[in-house]
Amino acid sequence: MTDAPKKRISDETLEMIRKLDIKEFAENALGEKLKREGTAYMAYRNGGENNPSVAIVPSKHYWKDFTRDDIGGIEVLSYFAYRMWDTVELKGERFTTAVHQVCALAGIPLKYDDGTVIQPTTDRCVGEVDLVEDDGSEHKQSPEVLNDYYRGLLSLMHLTEGHRKHFEEERRIPIETVKIRSYASMSDNPQDRYKLARDVIKKLGKKPEGIPGFYLAQGEYGPYWTMLGREGIIVPFRNLFNQIWGLQLRLDDPDTIVTTGSIRAEKKGDLVELYDYGGQFLWSGKRSQLPVSVSGGSAELILGNRYRWFSKTKDLKRGVLRGATISMPTPAPYHVAVPSRLLECWEAGVHLAEVYDTETVWLGEGPLKGDIAADFTDQIHLQTASVSAMQSLFEPAMQLGAKTVILAPDADAQTKLENVGKTVINLVEAARDYFTPRRVQLKFATWSIEQSKGLDDLLNLGFRPNFLELN
What we know:
With 471 residues, the chain is an alpha+beta fold. Helices cover 28% and strands 25% of the residues.
């Protein structure tokens, strides 16, 4: 006897799946809680983490795990595969299983070419979207072009008195070091940001096409170039050639107050005041007292991420005609932190290994933390935006010719075994697998959470980490 031929899933079903809204699938079918950040909706990666690093962008119909170069996709099937098997590869029985599961979860019929139909047992909970082909118009420029534009921008920016105090008093960074590292203040005023964009365009003589953070907005009298932003500190990301190839914005106040009904909220430090649209005072209290209901509506505090990428994509509904994303066509950047005395004389375009000792390289999270730690250790620190992305630093460390690599995630990541601690365990295992065959000595820097959260604060307080040999 011969096996009966397998039934073929119809092209109609596959096309229906291809059009399913990824955001609605994540929320309604998988029950995930997403946090909106601009045009993206953020979810937590597999294994857990403190800050979500999986982005779903409905307007572009794609999703991306920013911690892993090869994980992302443009349809629901790849997202389901990621959540189910921690991969986006679908072959053989796994593909068939994914199609069956997605149809069942989304509440859509599964049709075969022979006319057989498997009807869903639940109501449909995921809608369709109009597919938009990626034409490359929003891809970021090369590191060389980004470096020229970002340096031109930073040369026109300054530091507010409040941010100056933050660096000198809280971070204990001398103001001369702040200048060397090109930290700058971002204004919350849209008019200020427009003028700054206008001035940098005039200075460089070219429009910011493909420069993340700049976007073409639709104005009353026609389109114009401007920048995104909220009040905070701009932090440059540098690569191995001292090219500034990305910027992050450290928000002064990352939290948002969402109101319903006919009320508005005003934030005054830790205090919140609620008014109706006529200006009548309704309520005053601390942020910790939210949510609260008052006559005419309610107010809720939504906690936000302190750090955000300086990146803006096209969003026609909001009048954004053109933009550029920090993660396309290449992943979001990492940061090379070096001692400030080296940075002062390190020319852009020169490989770091040509001008400094790179035998010992630290791997950590947070660009500011790395900058501070580099001045204490007098060594190189490669930094990512989060602990979940630290595996992306392995290859750059080898490009520097490192003979010793020190893993230095924050202390809270080392202790919270129920979420980000799992990410650290995975990091250690991956580092062993990667560096040991290459004969690189691997160490783990550890310290007590009671002493400090980050390596920068630990060193600022006069302490030093302990080191565990990992190979």
